[in-house]
Specification:
globular, binds pyridoxal-5'-phosphate, Aspartate Aminotransferase, domain 1, 374 residues, 7-stranded mixed β-sheet, alpha/beta, Aspartate Aminotransferase, domain 2, 14 helices, 5-stranded mixed β-sheet
């Protein structure tokens, strides 16, 4: 089955009780069980597992080609549970353009979890090979990265990770399972902020881990989720599962529009740089062409000028709303340096665009009028 078909049909069985085609939403926090609760073979308590979330997890595993998936309350909850189950004393090599909250998490929490980290340019397999040390236990990649759209070869990282027994984790939030399947390229775990494209409507918070194999690491992370409580709520699970049903056409449409927008911006006199892997001028174009099915709906643009010029453009946009997050049906713009705060390595003139489902000509008109104001 092709990914588009899988996204529609997996975990979509008709409700046996009612014949309902749309899945039931089970809100119950507790489930009846035998008096001896060691005999349970179904559900016990919502924080452990629940039927709506189970459907979502089956869908997530199937669309990413994994053996099993775990759904969480957010992408950060998913990543934290995973990182807390790395061996103490271990070093995590992180992509230098990793989503800023994971970089912050590493700075603030890794020491408490007995971990260390170093930032590496993961677009260069040589730089990664050189950085791997005796304590390295995990490569944490993100591709395309947020916000500079840096593209990492998962196959190249897997070739480094496998012989050294390192765990390869890939945050594929920007790419989605429609465009990139890291497990097929050798990753051990894929992370998604399901808040973004998988939900697709900016109305549900969630995160997911998809595992190549269901082994001891999976069990440990499941236990962490049970005890720390970062589980996906049934309603969020239901909304994200609904989002998965339309994921493929949304992402295809958004990718098509993003390429048109990037091409328009690349030729614009008031733009100094466009970060979009679909452009042949992008350093990651060849790798993305090999490992992804299309280039995605995210791009970043550096306005010719300073921070104030970028802010003027963002403020003048009418269809692109100034708001954080991404992957919804609506187009968003964000001045990343402002949201990342003090110490942000993101260029001050950079605006990140999440291309929505509007017509690309209208979005280009909007950008054209905003850029005239610089
Ligand atoms: C690439 C990436 N990974 C992870 C996250 C964290 O996800 P969440 O906000 O659902 O916790 C985000 C959020 O923006 C993200 O962009």
């Amino acid at each position: 089955m092709r990914p588009e078909t899988r996204a529609v049909h997996v975990a979509a069985e008709v409700d046996p009780e009612t014949g309902a085609v749309a899945p039931p939403l089970h809100l119950s926090t507790t489930f009846e069980h035998p008096a001896d609760s060691t005999l349970i073979d179904g559900y016990l308590y919502q924080r452990y597992a629940n039927p709506t979330q189970d459907r979502l997890e089956r869908a997530l595993a199937a669309i990413d080609g994994g053996s099993a998936a775990l759904a969480f309350a957010s992408g950060m909850a998913a990543g934290s549970a995973l990182l807390q189950n790395l061996p103490p004393g271990g070093e995590v090599l992180m992509a230098d353009d990793t989503y800023f909250a994971f970089r912050k998490l590493a700075e603030r929490f890794f020491a408490r979890w007995g971990l260390t980290h170093r930032l590496v340019d993961m677009t260069s397999p040589d730089a990664v090979a050189e950085a791997i040390g005796p304590d390295t236990v995990c490569l944490w990649a993100e591709t395309p990265s947020n916000p500079r759209l840096k593209v990492t070869s998962i196959a190249a990282l897997a070739a480094l990770a496998k012989p050294r027994d390192l765990r390869l984790v890939v945050d594929a939030t920007f790419a989605t399972p429609v465009l990139l399947n890291p497990i097929a390229l050798g990753a051990d775990v894929v992370l998604h902020s399901t808040t973004k494209y998988l939900g697709g409507h900016s109305d549900a918070m969630g995160g997911a881990l998809v595992f190549a194999e269901r082994g001891a690491w999976f069990d440990a992370i499941l236990e962490t989720r049970k005890l720390q409580g970062g589980i996906a709520s049934p309603f969020a699970s239901w909304l994200i599962l609904r989002g998965i049903r339309t994921l493929a056409p949304r992402v295809r449409w958004q990718s098509e529009s993003a390429l048109k927008i990037a091409t328009f911006l690349e030729g614009h006199e008031r733009v100094s740089c466009v970060h979009y892997p679909g452009l042949t001028s992008h350093s990651g174009h060849a790798v993305a062409g090999r490992e992804m099915r299309d280039f995605g709906g995210m791009l970043s643009v550096e306005v010719a000028g300073d921070r104030a010029a970028a802010l003027r453009v963002a403020s003048a946009l009418k269809l692109f709303l100034n708001a954080t997050s991404l992957g919804g049906y609506e187009s968003l713009v964000e001045h990343r340096e402002s949201v990342e705060g003090k110490g942000s390595p993101t260029p001050a003139n950079l605006l990140r665009l999440s291309v929505g489902l509007e017509h690309s000509d209208d979005l280009i008109d909007d950008l054209a009028q905003a850029l005239r104001q610089v």
